[in-house]
Design goal:
about 375 residues, about 10% strand, 12 helices, alpha/beta, three-stranded parallel β-sheet, four-stranded mixed β-sheet, Aspartate Aminotransferase, domain 2, Aspartate Aminotransferase, domain 1
Length: about 375
């Protein structure tokens, strides 16, 4: 077996990005410290305006995290006990957890195996008189297929809440995701394509009445201060994170292009290595979508063994997600058995995220692909 070369390839390299924007970030942090306005305030108002424009939405509401953004949207739409909310079984926990926290029942449906995103036909088939909302997740930087979902709910008045936490800047038929449905939640977790230096999130919507309700909800439902109209939560985006996001936003389009160039290099390197004969499947990008490659996720045989092998050779990878949501212990009472959602379960067994970030070099990618190819040929 080939011995490690000594080259280290991280899954994400936030330090490399920071080196290129250090002065802008320091200036942003200093500006907030000088202002002594740390919670909401001008920086949050400005980043909301700038992000709404970038995402082609009428309204943007800064939030404390992507999870809180999704939770607040559901609260604003009245999701509660007795309701069912349809979502994908293959995703991060945030959407399903928010549904359950409000006393509603998450109804899990399967995915399109090519895109990892919710299967619109499965979502349509799962609708009942108790369906309060559908929450598609735009996974790994690729939009879900939205038109069939919007058509499915059009006659029933069921809102679509977009979980765009992994897909800031992704597009569906030329339009940014987030405000294609009633509202969408986004995350600025540090490793995201546009990340803060702490937790942060955003809601985008074209519904002005809903936007005002969400602003109330993020501050304990108070307006004015200490006068509570509704029960909300502490979901506020802080000014420091807002200022950092404002420093980063002018660079994000360039970073997207760099990610897409890295994805193209991966495709060419994998093609040259001829790994498809070993069952490796690369990400797809349907013609009507624009992928940001927040994650570069392949399918691979003997995924867990490959993951360990790459780690031993200095290549950091990640398994998203080892247990699909319908098989999580906390949802055991819902009664989903093994084999109920086979595509989600197959993805949980085979998906592996490879290093992906704007500063990733061709030399690093060549090392990743060569190490994978050599392992598959030897095993």
């Amino acid at each position: 077996m080939r011995q490690p070369t000594g080259m280290k390839v991280p899954l994400v390299d936030l330090g490399a990005q920071y080196d290129t924007i250090r002065d802008e970030v320091v200036a942003a942090v200093t500006r907030v410290c000088d202002s002594q306005r740390f919670i909401l305030g001008p920086e949050v108002e400005l980043v909301e305006k700038e992000l709404a424009e970038y995402l082609s939405a009428k309204h943007a509401v800064g939030m404390s995290s992507g999870t809180d953004a999704l939770l607040a949207i559901m609260m604003g739409l009245g999701v509660g006990p007795g309701d069912e909310v349809i979502t994908t079984a293959y995703s991060f926990f945030a959407a399903a957890g928010s549904i359950a926290r409000l006393g509603a029942t998450p109804v899990f449906v399967d995915i399109n195996p090519a895109t990892f995103n919710i299967d619109p036909d499965a979502a349509r088939a799962a609708m009942t008189s108790r369906t309060k909302a559908i929450v598609p997740v735009h996974l790994f930087g690729l939009s879900a297929d939205m038109d069939p979902l919007l058509e499915a709910v059009s006659k029933h008045g069921v809102p679509i809440i977009e979980d765009a936490c992994q897909a800031f800047g992704a597009r569906y038929r030329g339009l940014p995701v987030g405000a294609l449905g009633v509202a969408g939640g986004l995350s600025f977790f540090p490793s995201k394509s546009l990340g803060a230096y702490g937790d942060g999130g955003l809601i985008v919507t074209n519904d002005g009445v809903l936007a005002e309700r969400l602003r109330l909800l993020r501050a304990h439902g108070a307006e004015p201060k200490y006068v509570h109209k509704i029960v909300g939560g502490n979901f506020r985006l802080d000014a420091m994170q807002a200022a950092i996001l404002r420093a980063k936003l002018p660079h994000v389009s360039q970073w997207f292009e760099a990610r897409r160039e890295a994805a193209s290099r991966y495709r060419h390197l994998f093609a040259d290595a001829d790994v498809e004969v070993f069952g490796v499947e690369l990400p797809v990008e349907p013609q009507d979508r624009w992928h940001t490659y927040h994650q570069y996720v392949v399918r691979a045989p003997r995924r867990d063994e490959l993951h360990a092998h790459l780690e031993s050779h200095g290549i950091e990878t990640a398994i998203y997600y080892p247990v699909p949501l319908h098989r999580q212990e906390c949802f055991a009472s819902l009664g989903y058995s093994e084999g109920t959602l086979p595509q989600s379960e197959a993805a949980a067994r085979t998906a592996l995220a490879l290093p992906m970030y704007p500063e990733l070099t061709e030399e690093q990618q060549a090392h990743v692909v060569k190490t994978i190819a050599e392992y598959l040929r030897m095993s």
